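for the writeup, i need someone to sanity check this before i put it in the appendix. the sequnce is what the collaborator sent (i think, or maybe the updated version? ugh). structure was predicted straight from it, no edits. if anything looks off just tell me and ill rerun, i have time this weekend
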Amino acid sequence: MNKQYNKTDIENILRKYNLGKFKKFGKILKNDRVSFCQVIHTSKKKVFMKVFRIFGTHIKQGLIVASYMEKKGFPTYETYQSKQNKSYIIYKKIPIALLEYINIRARDDWPVINNSQMKSYSQGLARFHIDTKNLNLKKIPHGNFKDIKKRIKIFYKIREKKNKKIQKILEFMKENISNTKCPNKEYKSGYYSEYNPGHVFFSGSKIKYVIDWAIGYDNAYYDFGSSMVACFSKNGKKLNYMKLRTYIYEYNKIRKLSSSEKEHIYEALLFGICKYGVWGLNDLKKGKIASDKEICKDGVNRVLFIMNLSKKEFDLRLNIKS
């Protein structure tokens, strides 16, 4: 887990690329159960090295799709290809990717997106869905409808261990998650799953970088609903309908929503709220409901918000014309 790489290791890794020779080590930027990330200085450039400790289909497809989208001009980092034209290599039985180093300023994990930025944010997701529609991608078992429904059911069974508020939230999600299922016939494409303010960086009102690609294949409706949560206030207590109208309008300009998708905006948002809601209850290390101190408060607040908002009232407030 805590293994770090020495000079010889990096020289061996760089021999598989055309990125110059090793000069020196840079900062270690991440070292957790998911990955080890460090800056490497070569004779040609600074490189972001990512060593994967979890490496499923979603990660493999993420590397391939990120590279594909970057070449099409999508705002993301370059995924350097090895001499064998691969998006990653295997070194000592461990998958490693070398990526473009991007200088990102420290910020909140989930910054508030303003209405001008919402245009670029929404259009970016729609473009991703169009450009990945015909790629040969596989479904993944993370963050999709089936997975979220399963997580809610698991936590519902042990809800008595939590306070009354969390119990009511779990009861609501269990009763309503089935209403968010998208008909299989609807538009399918690459599934980003976590296209959210934490993974999108802006320069002014335009997206500069989209990071952390873990890609599956599913109905675009689920991404569309998941990413809507960016229209909430930072604490999750208020939904900004102006931002939401912008989000829907700008998305629809790039990828036309079907009549069914337009009729089920409430359900799409409900899916996103339930998804981040149950994730916010999860203790990643123990796989159980987190302690009250560790529970994601904004995720809880978004669920509480929609518990008191009917579809009829939502549609009236949203007031979007077809």
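Residues 284 and 290 are 8 Å apart (CA to CA). The chain has two domains: 23-100, 115-318.
thx in advance!!
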